[in-house]
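Annotated sample (chain length 179).
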Amino acid sequence: MTRFFVTPFVVTLSFLTPLLSCGGDRTRSPTCGMAQLIGPSLIQDRLRQLPFVLTVAPHGLPGTLPVRVVGTRQQNTVLVSYTKGALTMEHQGAGFPAGSVSDSTAYALLVVDDSTQRAQGVLIYESRRPPEGYPSIGALSGDGRTVPLYGVRVDWAGVSNPKCPLLGAPPAGSPSSTQ
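Output written by the structure step:
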């Protein structure tokens, strides 16, 4: 019969291992990496489903919203304003993809939760724009460049994981209406 001696080191190690493996920065996990790729793709797919496309700019938006270029970890903010009734947003901070903006590429997408009608933020896509004549709800500017702003309603809980949110925390106490 083999005897195993239990030392304080073994006991400590057996209790700390599960705790350490569950701790730490979960935003760097493979699950979060996949969520950061799949979420924006599902949201972009909503542009092909006309009932979910916003045709007019929502009113009652907060003064700032989170913004992220799809495929990057950096999150910034946009300043929200209305100029002559049109929704305009100004990108704040570094990271605006001015180098990839052309007449047919790069656009911004305002994401609105369809259950709460709350604007969650803006995603910037460095890909082919929707076709000419598609309902734009405004414009996003940054680094001297302007891209069209489109809007979609999505099931936010279905496209953003709370443990590794796509657009950070929602703006506090500022519901929006998509009239």
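Annotation: Residues 30-45 form the longest helix (16 residues).
Annotation: The beta strands are 64-69, 75-83, 86-92, 105-113, 119-128, 138-142, 145-154.
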